[in-house]
Design brief:
330 residues; alpha/beta; four-stranded antiparallel sheet; three-stranded parallel sheet; 33% helix; structural constituent of ribosome; transit peptide; mitochondrion; Ribosomal_uL1_3-a/b-sand
């Protein structure tokens, strides 16, 4: 306080003594770290706000070269997978490193022989199923693709013990009688359609005569791929022939999610090798029936396996139907 009175006398302005008292800062300002000298200077010049404390500037690291230097200095933690060259000769022992040898490709007869041998060595079920897994080339052009298909075939050597349930769509009483006499699980017209929509009737396959197809439109979304189609041989006038096919027929379907993969059971392991081979050939012929004419090799990869064994890679050239082989040769 004495300091401000002396300053007022030196300047000769006694009137400013009272106003000089207002130049002092409150204890709150001092405790908050306000710069005392700056506050006095601002009050003398009529300023109301204090000069904010200047914080030291942050130093940011330059991106680019600095980052490159840091990344170069860091050791590579990811271990690189070593590439091995294949051995020229085949493995002599039963146990060997797979990465040193290319995957073996088998003829159909050799693959069936090995599957039977695996069953004996592993003490597994001798009546287990044999499956054929096919990877297909479904691209028929740059933008077009082959639609996933489903069909029913009659295998040369059926192995299923159960008979499929088949429903026949027809509107005439005589055809309904023929269907029932030949083993149809259900037969009828509009009344049968209503029962299927209400989930009162569920069967394995559905066949129909051409005249009733317009009445079956409400079933398209419900039956989906099982809806009667000419390409699947499920539409026709020969009811006994259709029932014979679908009651004992074998269905092959392309997977809806993968759209280029087909897996189907073709036999059981206790069947003779020639019967297994014949069923496999029948499935391949049916698959190539859906192949567009302008398309090249349809089967990209084929594996034969049992329920408990690994898949054995088959030679795709030997799986081509005879008609396809002659066309490609020419």
């Amino acid at each position: 306080m004495g300091y401000m009175i002396i300053q007022a006398e030196a300047t000769g302005e006694q009137s400013h003594i009272a106003s000089g008292r207002n130049l002092f800062c409150s204890s709150v300002q001092l405790n908050c770290g306000t710069n005392f000298n700056n506050t006095i200077r601002n009050r003398q010049h009529g300023g109301r706000h204090t000069i904010p404390r200047q914080r030291p500037e942050r130093k940011f690291k330059k991106e680019g070269k600095d980052k490159e230097k840091v990344s170069d200095e860091k050791p590579d933690d990811i271990e690189k997978i070593k590439s091995y060259t294949y051995m020229e000769s085949e493995p002599e022992d039963d146990v060997y490193l797979k990465r040193l040898y290319p995957r073996r490709i088998y003829e159909v007869e050799k693959a069936i022989h090995l599957l039977k041998k695996f069953q004996v060595l592993d003490f597994t079920n001798p009546k287990q199923g044999i499956y054929l897994d096919l990877t297909l080339d479904m691209a028929s052009g740059k933008k077009k693709k082959v639609e996933p298909f489903a069909s029913v075939i009659s295998l040369p050597y059926p192995f299923a013990s159960e008979v499929n349930k088949v429903a026949v769509f027809t509107g005439t009483a005589s055809e309904i009688k023929i269907a029932e006499e030949n083993g149809a699980a259900f037969a009828g017209g509009a009344d049968l359609v209503k029962k299927i929509l209400d989930d009162e009737v569920v069967v394995d396959f559905y066949v129909a005569v051409p005249e009733i197809m317009t009445e079956l439109n409400p079933l398209r979304k419900k039956l989906k791929k099982r809806f009667p189609k000419t390409t699947r041989n499920s539409i026709g006038r020969d009811i006994p022939k259709m029932l014979e096919l679908f009651k004992t027929g074998h269905e092959i379907v392309v997977d809806e999610e993968r759209q280029n993969f087909l897996s189907t059971k073709i036999a059981t392991l206790d069947m003779p090798s020639d019967q297994i081979s014949a069923n496999l050939e029948a499935v391949i012929n049916e698959v190539y029936r859906h192949r567009p004419q302008n398309l090249g090799p349809f089967v990209v990869r084929a594996f034969l396996r049992s329920s408990t064994s690994e898949g054995l890679l088959l030679k795709t050239d030997s799986l081509l139907p005879k008609e396809v082989e002659t066309k490609e040769a020419t």
